[in-house]
Every structure is written in structure tokens, then in C-alpha cells.
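(Protein data)
===
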Amino acid sequence: MVISHEFEYIKPTTLNEVTDSLSKHGDKARILSGGTDLTVRLKEDIETPDIVIDIKGISELNRFKFANNELTIGAGVTFSDIIASAEIKKSFYMLWEAATTVASVGTRNRATLVGNICSAVPSLDSGPALLCYDAKVLVKSKTGERVISIHDWFIGPKKTALKKDELVTDIVIPQLTIKNGACYMKLGRYAGEDLAQAGVGVIVSADLNYHIAYCAVGPVPKRSWQIEALLKGKNPDKNLIQEAQKIAVSETSPITDIRASKEYRSHMISVMLERGLRIAADRLE
């Protein structure tokens, strides 16, 4: 299928050029980085922009760095870049593990972490990790910059807190300073390129603090503060895990679609939570 809709294409080399174009065109501008979602939407006429702004030529967006116990990931960093980083694997294991589950190798070579959160599909694999690590999203417009907590970022299926004249420049992730074990579990119909039927991320820290989040079982990825409070300071036994599983089912709202029924998703989210807790605890040890 070809792209039948005509639009202007530009490839700026500075952020100011991007924000100028966004300010001028507003809702009729689209950002192109990896393009794995946008090109499909252009071909299907879901998106009909007046201008497509290719940001791959802005070098400062195509790198990540560690400083002051924080990881900063630019808007051009791909999932393959994340997988290739030994530092990310060591310090942000859940994000690294989630990156390995995204689509195919070819897609991971182009798809970016920032593009993933901007698409904001309920099944996005990066959601649980970013929620568990309390990430921040840095955005820029012609009039200034602001920081958005990842907990305030997702406002609905394919909807975010990003304004029409803003560009995401970076995702900043604070490093956990205490020893921890982390796990991302993804349920798919088959091994390989598939969207999640359900996803669960778990972090267990040495001081028995827990970070737990889901994807694909509600309109937006979600952190489970209730289960974290239940488990805080405890080594979960069978009864406690069962109580956590009941909460997981009650606080998620899966749908039935081509990939799975809501009943199957509800059942599996409790199974995956138990497995995730055990795997994260094993990795901590």
C-alpha cells in the first residue's frame, strides 16, 4: 500500500527548527523518528498531516547518557540501542528485558522508546518498566520546556499529556540505589512479533519494597500502588500472593479483542503476577 496523501517533508538539524514548525502547523504536523507506527497510519490515511518533521538528523536526540544516578534517553534512541547497552541491562533490567520483547529485530532497529510512549497504545511493552522506575518525560515547545511524570503521561488509549506544539526530547529514569531484582513478563499468542495480550512488570528491592505495573489490561498502562502497599516489608507467602492476585484482577479492566478475551486476560494477569514476583525475588538473590 502506498502513501496517497500529500504532505511537506522536512528534516531539521536543530530543536529550534522543530519547535518553530510545530508552533506554525500545530495539529497538522507529525514527528517522524523510527516511523514504525506513523508510516502505517499514513498509508491507511489514519493520519493526514500537512507536514512531517523528520528528527533523525538531530544528533543530540540520538544518544543516551548516565549522570547523577539518572539515565537520560533521547527521542532518537531505538530499542536495539537499549538492548545493546550493558549499562542499561545492569541498572535498568526491566527496561532492557521489555525492549527485547518488542516486535521483531527489524522493528527494534528503527522503533524508539519515545515513539512507543507517544503512540500510547495500551499494550506498549515499555509502559510497565517506565512506571516502575518512575520515569520523567522532558518536552519542549517554542515557548519553553516542561517535565511530565510518566504517571501523568498516559491519559487514554493512544492519548498522552503532550500538547500539539510540543516535542518529546528525552525520557529521564532515576536509578534505584538499593539492590533489586526485576522482571517483565509478556503474554503473547506466539514467540516473536506480537503485541502483548497482557504484561506485568515487577521490581523487588532488598528492603522489601515492591514496584508493580501492568500493560494491555486496561485503557492505559497502570502502576499498582495497592498491591505495593500490601506487600511492602513482607516476603509474600501463598496467602499474601493470593490476596495480591485478587487485587490485580479487581483493579484491571481488560477488553476482548482479536488477541484474547477479557476473561483470559484477567486470569492470566493473576498468574503472571505470581510468576513475576517469584522471578524478581530469585533475581534479587
Summary: The longest helix spans residues 262-284.
